[in-house]
Design a protein that fits this description.
By secondary structure, the protein is an alpha/beta fold. 45% of the residues lie in helices and 13% in strands.
Length: 273
C-alpha cells in the first residue's frame, strides 16, 4: 500500500473516532459548510493544515451535498528547503495544491514591535484576497482544540480579557468572505499521533525569525508554550481542566460579569443595577 492510501486508511480506521468524527462534529455543530460553498483550504505546510487537507478530501469522497474545495498554499518567503518540503508532502499525499507568492517575511523582518502579529494579519489578508479572486467564499484554517483553549487563557493572563477563537467568522475587510476552523474540536495530541503513525515530517516552524527549527518538530519558546505547560501542570491535578476551559466560554453568565463588550460597545453592570 502506498503512503497516501495508508494515510487515508488511518483516518478512516485508527483515527476515525478522535479525528474524523470530531472534524465532522465541528462542521455540523457550527454549520461550517453549506451547499454551494467554495472553500479555500489554506495549507501552511504544518501538521494541522496538511491533515485538514486530507480530511477535506475524505469529506468530498462522502459528499452529502455539493461544495467545492481548493487547496491553497501561500509562500510568504519560505526558504527553498521549506517550500520543497511542502511541495514534496503535497505530492506524496496527493493534494493538488495551488501556490501563490507574497513577500511578507521581508516586509516584517526588520519590524521590532509585534512582527508576529503584523505577519499574521498580512498573511490572513493575502489569503482572503487570493481565495476571493479564485472564486471562493470561505477560507479554512487549521487551528485545533488546543489552540482554542490556549487562546482563552492567553487572553485572560496576558490580555486581561475573556475571549475565544471562534469556529467561524465573517471577514470585516472582504465582503462575503468567511473564515472557518474545521479542526476546532480535534486535539493536538491526536494530530501528532496521526503524523507519527504515518511517519510524516511536516514544517514545524518556517518563520524567518526562527528558521533553525524548520522540520525537527521542536516547539519554539513563546507565551503560547508557557500556556501549554501551565495547562499540562493543571491537568495533573484536574484531568478535566482542558474541557472546562473550553466550556467556560460557552457558559458565560452575564449577570455575574462586571462589564462586557458587544459590537464594540461597552456595557457595565451598574447600567441596569
Amino acid at each position: 500500500m502506498d503512503l497516501n492510501k495508508s494515510v487515508e486508511q488511518s483516518i478512516r480506521k485508527k483515527f476515525h473516532k478522535c479525528i474524523w468524527s470530531k472534524f465532522t462534529k465541528a462542521i455540523n455543530t457550527y454549520e461550517l459548510i453549506k451547499e454551494g460553498d467554495c472553500i479555500a483550504v489554506c495549507i501552511s505546510g504544518g501538521k494541522d493544515s496538511m491533515l485538514m487537507a486530507k480530511l477535506f478530501q475524505e469529506l468530498k469522497f462522502h459528499n452529502k451535498f455539493d461544495f467545492t474545495v481548493k487547496f491553497i498554499v501561500m509562500d510568504p518567503g519560505y526558504s527553498s528547503i521549506n517550500r520543497k518540503n511542502i511541495e514534496n508532502n503535497s505530492e506524496k499525499l496527493n493534494i493538488p495544491i495551488d501556490i501563490f507568492e507574497a513577500d511578507i517575511f521581508n516586509s516584517v523582518y526588520k519590524i521590532e514591535k509585534s512582527p508576529c502579529y503584523l505577519c499574521a494579519r498580512m498573511r490572513r489578508g493575502y489569503l482572503y484576497n487570493y481565495a476571493k479572486e479564485s472564486g471562493c467564499n470561505k477560507i479554512a484554517l487549521g487551528h485545533h482544540f488546543d489552540d482554542v483553549i490556549e487562546t482563552i487563557l492567553m487572553g485572560m493572563l496576558y490580555g486581561a480579557q475573556v475571549q475565544t477563537m471562534m469556529p467561524k467568522l465573517h471577514s470585516t475587510n472582504f465582503d462575503g468572505m468567511e473564515l472557518i476552523r474545521p479542526l476546532y474540536l480535534v486535539r493536538e495530541e491526536d494530530i501528532k499521533a496521526w503524523r507519527d503513525f504515518n511517519g510524516l515530517q511536516f514544517l514545524q516552524c518556517a518563520c524567518r525569525f526562527t528558521e533553525n527549527c524548520t522540520i525537527d518538530n521542536k516547539e519554539s519558546e513563546s507565551k503560547r508554550l508557557e500556556i501549554k505547560n501551565l495547562i499540562k501542570e493543571l491537568k495533573e491535578v484536574n484531568p478535566f481542566v482542558e474541557s472546562n476551559i473550553f466550556r467556560s466560554v460557552e457558559n458565560v453568565n452575564l449577570s455575574t460579569v462586571i462589564a462586557y463588550k458587544k459590537n464594540g460597545k461597552r456595557h457595565h453592570f451598574l447600567d441596569e443595577y
